[in-house]
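hey all, quick one before standup. I had two proteins in the batch that finished overnight and I want to keep them in one place so we stop losing track of which output belongs to which input. First protein below, input sequence then structure tokens straight from the run.
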Amino acid sequence: MPYDEYLEVETLDRPSAKHFRSHYLSKQIPVKISGVIDYWPAFKEKQWSLDYFEERYGQEVIGIEKFEPGERGDGRNSPQDYVKFLKFQDMKLVDLIQVLKHEPNRMYYMAQHPFRKCFRRLREDIGDNPYLKGCIQYIPGAHMDTYLWIGPKGTLTPIHQDPMPNFLIQVMGRKLVHLFPADQAEKNLYIGQFERPSFSPVDVENPDLERYPLYRDCTHYKTIINPGEMLHIPRNWGHAVKSLDVSISLSSFFITYGLLFKLLPEYVTVVMSQARKSWRWEQANERARVNPPPRSTN
């Protein structure tokens, strides 16, 4: 179907775990789920907000992705500009929050902060996700963990793939998510033809159809996730994520035991490749002590 005709992602209210697994997870179909996590303290007595994080964790040092005014935003959200202008910086969380509150033209983003290494006692603010019961949610050295995101309105992560399924959980603000089936990644999204191998070179907001003509035939899903909702993103589905408001999110990557055994040879290869890249980066930057290499996004 034409790229500019959008399919809606189905929304379910409190489906059973069995229904989710048999109709969506096993078939690798995206679905938005509501009514399941509203009871978490992060939505109630410990309601997450910028003020909440500033008061309790403001002095914590975090790593951020940073873009200065004019480097990202409407008309500047291409993958090429993302790679060109992306910088990393360590700063206190209170300083990031002041930027988010008072300098919205600066795209400063605490992106993919590992939740298990997160601020002390923050894990008490979230409850269980019933759809992850019996799944593996953490594997050292792999892209397999839960991550915290705090960032501004307007930030956009270009189309990319993640090797494992993921729940994108929205706590504050809204996010717009574009999704594309996994079997269209190479042909229609041109993934593998960009300097970041898991990214598409296509600008989801302003695609260059002369340069990437097969994009016009992709199947394009689009949905907005609101606070209290979570989106299942199947493994290897292309997706781009844009914050419509100042936003706080969690992304939980996971895998079933059956899928792990099936993918074990591929997993070992990927982990070894990541370890080699990390070692080379550390060797190249040992003296400079610069910020970490680009992290994969949600």
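OK second protein, same deal, sequence then tokens:
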Amino acid sequence: MPKIFLDIETTGLSPLVHRVVCIGMADEEKEPGTIIGENERDLLLKFWEALPDGAELVGFNLSFDIGFLTLRCLRHGISPVKLLAAGKTDLSKLVRDIVPGERYMSLARLAKFFGIEKRTDGAAIPDAWERRDLNAIQEHCEEDVAIVKTLWQILRPLAEEPASQAQKNYLKDLGVPFAPGVTKQQASQLIDKALREAP
């Protein structure tokens, strides 16, 4: 399953009133690249063309990105099935799982903790969009994808931690088959999927 490091830039926080203006992606070999433009439908279609089948998406606060992309795709009559079927690793969730009391966890804060330089600020994206400063948006998005990729290398052991016995028991109770070496993250995804699909 190819890993795709993902970040999106939007004009605000609500997919009901705001839009996607930039999508940043990288794989484990390539440097970050972006899909950017003023026509949101074209931008989303280019993203679908670039996203490999069976990809595992890795991001920070990934549920925001996935939810935003899903609703914006539906708005433009584009099926989000490929996105919803992708594996997902949310780095913010990995950290919150081991430090549950940590309420505020931003990409900038985690990058600073690990000594990773972050020069741009996502709060400036709506203003950059108003000025149509696509270069500033692209620079920020590429930087965030690069940081996500670096954080993945640091946090990878958390994603590869073996599933707990409680998770394995729950999977058995749900009747969900799983591999002997299932990880904690994979078990969590299998449980979530089974509960979503339950009648």
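Flagging for whoever picks this up: The chain has two domains: 3-159, 162-199. Residues 56 and 87 are 4 Å apart (CA to CA).
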